[in-house]
Amino acid sequence: MSIFEARESEIRGYCRVYPVVFDTASNAVQVDDQGKEYIDFFAGAGVLNFGHNNERMKRAVIDYIESNGVTHSLDMHSTAKRTFMERFTKTILEPRDMPHKMQFMGPTGTNSVEAALKIARRVTKRTQIVAFTHGFHGMTLGALACTANQVFRAASGVPLQHVSHFPFGCEKTCSGCTMGCGNGVIEQMRSLYSDTSSGLQPPAAFLVETIQAEGGVNVASKEWLQSLAALAKELGSLLIIDDIQVGCGRTGSFFSFDGMDIDPDIVCLAKGIGGWGTPMAMNLVKPEVDKHWNPGEHTGTFRGQGLSFVAGSEAIGYFETPELMDEVKVKGKIMLDAIAPLEKKYDQVQIRGRGMLYGIDVGDGATAKAIVAACFDDGLLVSACGTGGRVIKLIPPLTIPQDQLESALATLVKHTEKVMGGAA
Amino acid sequence: MSIFEARESEIRGYCRVYPVVFDTASNAVQVDDQGKEYIDFFAGAGVLNFGHNNERMKRAVIDYIESNGVTHSLDMHSTAKRTFMERFTKTILEPRDMPHKMQFMGPTGTNSVEAALKIARRVTKRTQIVAFTHGFHGMTLGALACTANQVFRAASGVPLQHVSHFPFGCEKTCSGCTMGCGNGVIEQMRSLYSDTSSGLQPPAAFLVETIQAEGGVNVASKEWLQSLAALAKELGSLLIIDDIQVGCGRTGSFFSFDGMDIDPDIVCLAKGIGGWGTPMAMNLVKPEVDKHWNPGEHTGTFRGQGLSFVAGSEAIGYFETPELMDEVKVKGKIMLDAIAPLEKKYDQVQIRGRGMLYGIDVGDGATAKAIVAACFDDGLLVSACGTGGRVIKLIPPLTIPQDQLESALATLVKHTEKVMGGAA
Amino acid sequence: MSIFEARESEIRGYCRVYPVVFDTASNAVQVDDQGKEYIDFFAGAGVLNFGHNNERMKRAVIDYIESNGVTHSLDMHSTAKRTFMERFTKTILEPRDMPHKMQFMGPTGTNSVEAALKIARRVTKRTQIVAFTHGFHGMTLGALACTANQVFRAASGVPLQHVSHFPFGCEKTCSGCTMGCGNGVIEQMRSLYSDTSSGLQPPAAFLVETIQAEGGVNVASKEWLQSLAALAKELGSLLIIDDIQVGCGRTGSFFSFDGMDIDPDIVCLAKGIGGWGTPMAMNLVKPEVDKHWNPGEHTGTFRGQGLSFVAGSEAIGYFETPELMDEVKVKGKIMLDAIAPLEKKYDQVQIRGRGMLYGIDVGDGATAKAIVAACFDDGLLVSACGTGGRVIKLIPPLTIPQDQLESALATLVKHTEKVMGGAA
Amino acid sequence: MSIFEARESEIRGYCRVYPVVFDTASNAVQVDDQGKEYIDFFAGAGVLNFGHNNERMKRAVIDYIESNGVTHSLDMHSTAKRTFMERFTKTILEPRDMPHKMQFMGPTGTNSVEAALKIARRVTKRTQIVAFTHGFHGMTLGALACTANQVFRAASGVPLQHVSHFPFGCEKTCSGCTMGCGNGVIEQMRSLYSDTSSGLQPPAAFLVETIQAEGGVNVASKEWLQSLAALAKELGSLLIIDDIQVGCGRTGSFFSFDGMDIDPDIVCLAKGIGGWGTPMAMNLVKPEVDKHWNPGEHTGTFRGQGLSFVAGSEAIGYFETPELMDEVKVKGKIMLDAIAPLEKKYDQVQIRGRGMLYGIDVGDGATAKAIVAACFDDGLLVSACGTGGRVIKLIPPLTIPQDQLESALATLVKHTEKVMGGAA
């Protein structure tokens, strides 16, 4: 019996899908302890936008350690943090005229959401949050109340309160869907929140992902997001964009909402922001919101991670020149071109996505599971997401070499067709 | 205006107490960007038990990075994780006959507490948790409900529910305290929880720190902890020890409860477990509790941190031989000997602590603040904790050289006496 | 200063609308202490379906008192209760093949709703209740969470939890309404409750009024109620009809849902059930639901009111022969015929109602208030309801003489036209 | 099968203890439909302080009905209400210099508690209420959260929130009790509520019965009540006395707290206030608290009960002259003298009470149940209360003739001794 079977909690999950022991990794390739190689279309759940052991970051981090740079500093000032903040301001915020402050917290996405909810509630003196069907925002009690999936909610042990869920404004309408997604929902919310006898009161904030990655790669339409932003403004509610999984370049620009002409009050970032897999979480908060914080009110021991600042600074470098984002557009097209025929071939398949994030909704979890397993055996790591795990998520490192990308896509299409058989 | 003033959130805290920019650090010394050195009696809020840039860990981590070891792996298996788990099992769990499983989660203490609460509630089919006055357990909504300090609670924005607070069983009774601490509280709880007309129902779990570090270095008596453990057993409630700040060797043994003859169902670990400041959080959960988890129910992107596994494995090395723990006993005595006279000299001073963790309760926050500031100017980093910040916390790296320890203590005592003046 | 000004709570309300002291009353006429007479189109908020001091009931009650009948008996058996239950069973339940049990509780509508929520939650092991926009269900904390009007909700002092509000299925669509009422809402709920990643879970019960009297005389369509009943069945949720204000004959049949072919699990009754204004509240609960109660779990001191049983038995008499219900149809038509022209004349007016309950929605509260005041001065008691008090509610005793009915309607129309002026 | 078995809810309770059908009643005697007489030591759960069908009230009520007095008036003014309010002010409030306003609500005790909680929360802008072990305050969700007995709490179906329970300050210490009742609890609360790191915040109100009738006839000491009142004042919390069961003359004065030199902000009254068993509920609220109500914020259809005003006015007559209250003292002594020997005879028996309310705590519910059943068979109605039903409650009408009182006490003692056997 391995140490994992003997001593690791029954809660372990991904190791059941990929039942090997990984040893080393470089850019888009992971190698197990038997030497078998895998192309990584999972990227650490969207963390590793710049690949495993990104060479630039690796060098910077080793140099930092060698020089005895401060590894751990809570919210004291450090030179590494100063560099990160300066570079982020210059490269990301200033070109967008974003006046937002940077708030660091315990380095997990769920902590960033918890912090966002706290300040939104304080500023508005309201308690209710509106989140959306299929949204994923974390596992701690405040964020979990916003997460839609009943698998996670059922573990809470206490009622999940102070959050209302409305239908997400998908760009594509799933067949058979009667939720009345899209702008109808915005109008319904406007009516409900404007009527003092509706039983509902305007929320502290609307919390939304522009693309629900865990939720099944559901893509909100630009029009819907703009309507939502307008509604938030009308109601005096904050708009919080959870860009934890789809920010940091995934969609071909730093933020997933770039170019959508919306102006979020808070942006939650984690996963990719620390660059190469060491943790960081950071909220961008408008100054008029941020000023309501008192010093030290929302702490977190690991909120000052030196290595993440160093690697994260290197990551920002990818946004100082257009090369990588241009590549994302090219590679994204390659991805879509490769999988689009599946949608045509199978009635039950729907393809959704943007940038270098795509989901193949195969209609049910069993089918998706079989495809994931077949790919794994064939040296490709993909993962299922969405309700009942019915969507195969493609989220490779943005830096994946084109030949690996193409070969992996071929593998994926091959196994999908094998599992799904002749066209429906 | 510095980037910090221009762009960092108003919530920043420690940087206001230590208004410099730290650059490098080694063992118990931090150096700011002006080259000024500070002896570190804060240790990253108890994370850096083995010092900044611990040489053993530094080498191991650099080697790991150079070899392209997996940095980030969620809950997939990795060779680094295997080594960590094997070493932890052999060195820590087996000698204590602890059958506990290891559960990894988002790498912050608050996430570990949230996970513990979830499983405790599920197993017992109860919702209420008992926590204690002055306890500190984290910032996310579930853990925050257990944290006692109103400064943190007031930021929640929603009512904090499903947690009852009872007086903590301090070894020393603060003057003027009428909470009826100690075993009286255990008997009161027994009465309340045994009476079906008390308005209270037996809790899912009792969540307790053996020493409340943030809460003011309040030390629970062994007798009280044993009574609490017995009560938990009687009521069918779990006993959860939050050893996040005072575990990992701080008290002269790996767990703070070693030698107390209590048998917790869950132990929460974070801070020091990752070795040198990179994040890790891990719960030890009895198998009969752990088996109630379903795979993937409590996730967290950064729950598989390669560097933390590598450094954390090195940290375990310090428990394979008796040297460091022996040193802790010696240095702890040096600390107590240095500060004990203050308690004699000043009526309002109370000294509390164990191992290499001591608190000097100077009676009010203003006095403590003045002492902290004077020490900082004189090159010593200490921090205030407890209600209103009235307790100066001494928590140096366990590996601090003896001469630095003594010199820092002298600095501390000198400034305490300067600030407090002639004996009361 | 009157005793009312000197000593009655500031919360007093109706006495501000009708600033006189009432002394006597008979059928549809109330007389103040100055001898001025008023036709009563308010009927004690829908309690006095059979008029003030109904002669049949008056005699029966006086005889009962004279004979030393038991006045107050909690849930002991009494002969008066036996008679009431037998008569109710024979006249109301058996002809409808309703197997429901009768549950008596503290004699207010809100207590009946609280009891219904408790047993629905127990039976389904779920916590959430679905109520509807503009619904009114009472003032105590459990029922208040179901009540939609923010005026009442704002007095709760604590968050109102465990209830979701959806748009009510009005027969008529208010102009400008974008809630997507009607069957669209049923389909939306079906989608949300069938999707395990919607963030919502199927409710314990749907709680609905067939006509929202306090909410503005909003009439649910038969089709919508049938769809709702079907959805409840699908989801394993209970259907609770709150017939407190519109049951007991108000719509021309005992229950407001008679003839709609729906089969509620619980029916809440109060107001009119006690016959002549003494309190009673009673739930009708299907045996398979009711059997989950344990004896004495939901008590209420005044749940056994002898006078209400006696008067209530007499009230049942009105359902043993068709006369009164036939009259309701005739008089209801008279009401509608009198006020329907207002809808034609004024764009902003909408007429809604059924049986002998009508609402004139005049578009805003100020207009309605002026009309109510003018009617009062002219000897007619009407009241405003709905959001912002924009709807004038007509709810006379069912036993009102036809000439009084016609004269009162003329008064009402006259003042409405005076206040609203020439046609818009 | 009787109609009760066929059609009454399984929740019915007292009818299972007294399995007969009551028909008539006069003062302290109830008669069943077989003509069997029972002396009533239960008085409708403390409602019938002035006996069944009290002759004074009966005449007044019949006259009122005959003259077509207004039976039901919500919170409109009526002449019957004016008389009641004037008489209550003159006889009860003015002699005590109580400036309180009278607030009427849905006529059940639980509604009065709900109203008190709402205004207390609003005035203090706090949510938490402190209630006490063994307290009973009602069945609706807000009041139920204050009720201590798990039998009732378990029916709520949702978590009961925003209320903390502390040990009640019994005058007598139950053997084996380790709750640390009495002033120790007051000091503990003072410490907890004064410490900003206790996890507790000062409550909106302390809600307390001076004698817990349902809770087992537990009598608070005057000293404890005064300490509690002082603590409330210190903390800016309201003091709410729930005098629903033990007010209205039961203890030998109108209020149970008369002569205790405490000054409650709110007094909740119901049960006996309506005089002869028709419902009324009324809160006395200090003007500076009451002024925070907005008109109509806490409604209740049956809040203006004409018959209860009429009978209640007659009840006030008993406080205009000293006769009845003098009698209560004499009869209370007779009661105590009769049962005190049981306490001496049986180790497990404890006698508690005051005025004409006594409890015989026989140590366990089975014993109490057997005594209650034996008394019933022998023509005496008594009831069990307290945890597990271990206390026999003696609460006869205050107007019971002395010979009936003595004979009933003899019956009770006889059966107690029969059931309990020779002295322990």
From TrEMBL, chains A, B, C, D:
Its cofactor is pyridoxal 5'-phosphate. GO terms for molecular function: transaminase activity. This is Aspartate aminotransferase family protein. Belongs to the class-III pyridoxal-phosphate-dependent aminotransferase family. Keywords: Aminotransferase, Pyridoxal phosphate, Transferase. Transmembrane segments: none annotated. InterPro entries: Aminotrans_3 (IPR005814), Aminotrans_3_PPA_site (IPR049704), Dat (IPR004637), PyrdxlP-dep_Trfase (IPR015424), PyrdxlP-dep_Trfase_major (IPR015421), PyrdxlP-dep_Trfase_small (IPR015422). It comes from Gilvimarinus gilvus. Pfam families: Aminotran_3.
